[in-house]
Specification:
Number of domains: 2
CATH class of the largest domain: Alpha Beta
CATH architecture of the largest domain: 3-Layer(aba) Sandwich
Shape: globular
Largest sheet: 6 strands, mixed
Strand order of the largest sheet: 10-9-8-13-11-12
Order of helices and strands: EHEEEHEHEHEHHEHEEHEHEHE
Number of helices: 10
Structural class: alpha/beta
Distance between the termini: 25 Å
Number of strands: 13
Length: 284
């Protein structure tokens, strides 16, 4: 039986040591800044991105993984004798799934050895799906078993986050059901989630500190009675705050795995600096 290799995109934020341990292939999203095009996490890293964003007169835009990069990743793994499972950012947030479908069509005779799954989310909510499948693949699971596990894992994952402003989500067209919070008092801090593949509003809270308190409460509620619990931060240029949130959430949920991850430039361009959040997988 052929071994299974996992491919995901650069919004998964899986720590480098785990990517290497499970040989997960990451295809980069695209950041466009004026006349310059960057591959997410390859040509531009988070620190440099937020430094440039602070003084930029032109705001960046984004584009999905190129079909060429998707085809290259699939072809390389197929040539090594693998079956391939791709798990990618929600199709309601990005066109990446379409790039994957086109990339699979280009491998022609081998396309039956490539399966594609819509994670219906992003960040480490997707990353935990990828890791669950990668761990199963390492134990010898087949392509069909890996795909079934990826689909089974989706309802066990979630992500909640607090943004300083809705400006970036609104400008990028990714605001979804959080649209109703636009025009509210400037000091209100929106608490958001990704639900059914789209960014949706949870609550609006008067201060960032209270929003963070509520964030931790919700993570505890969502994971209550479900073991094991795995947690990961997401943050956009807010490292110290994110580390404290992860510490507190880990204690409250008795998480068996806690990962510190940073939002990549492509997602940072949509949520804006100062964003903090927690992704989880529970009960799987």
């Amino acid at each position: 039986m052929r071994k299974v290799a996992i491919v995901t995109d650069s919004t998964a934020y899986i720590p480098k040591d785990l990517l290497e341990q499970y040989a997960v292939t990451v295809v980069p999203q695209v950041l466009i800044w004026g006349e310059t095009t960057y591959e997410d996490g390859v040509d531009i890293q988070p620190d440099a991105f937020y430094q440039k964003l602070a003084t930029a007169k032109i705001m960046p835009t984004t584009s999905q993984v190129s079909v060429a990069n998707m085809h290259k990743a699939f072809s390389s793994l197929l040539q090594q004798g693998y079956d391939v499972l791709g798990i990618f950012i929600s199709s309601k947030l990005s066109g990446t799934i379409q790039s994957a479908i086109q990339g699979r069509e280009m491998v022609e005779r081998d396309k039956e050895h490539v399966e594609i799954v819509d994670s219906q989310t992003t960040a480490m909510a997707m990353g935990f799906q990828v890791l669950a499948v990668a761990r199963a693949a390492a134990q010898g699971a087949s392509l069909a078993e890996c795909k079934a596990l990826a689909e089974k894992s989706r309802p066990h994952t979630g992500v909640y986050f607090v943004v300083d402003t809705l400006e970036f989500l609104h400008r990028g067209g990714r605001i979804g059901g959080a649209q109703r919070l636009l025009g509210t008092a400037l000091n209100l801090k929106p608490l958001l989630t990704v639900q059914e593949g789209k960014v949706e509003a949870v609550e609006r809270i008067r201060t960032k500190a209270k929003a963070v308190e509520r964030l931790i409460e919700i993570i505890a509620e969502q994971t209550a009675g479900k073991k094991p619990v795995r947690l990961a931060t997401l943050h956009a240029n807010a490292e110290a705050e994110a580390r404290e949130i992860l510490k507190r959430a880990t204690q409250q949920t008795n998480a068996s795995e806690s990962l510190f991850t940073t939002v990549s430039p492509v997602i940072g361009a949509h949520i804006g600096p100062g964003t903090v959040g927690i992704a989880y997988m529970a009960g799987l």
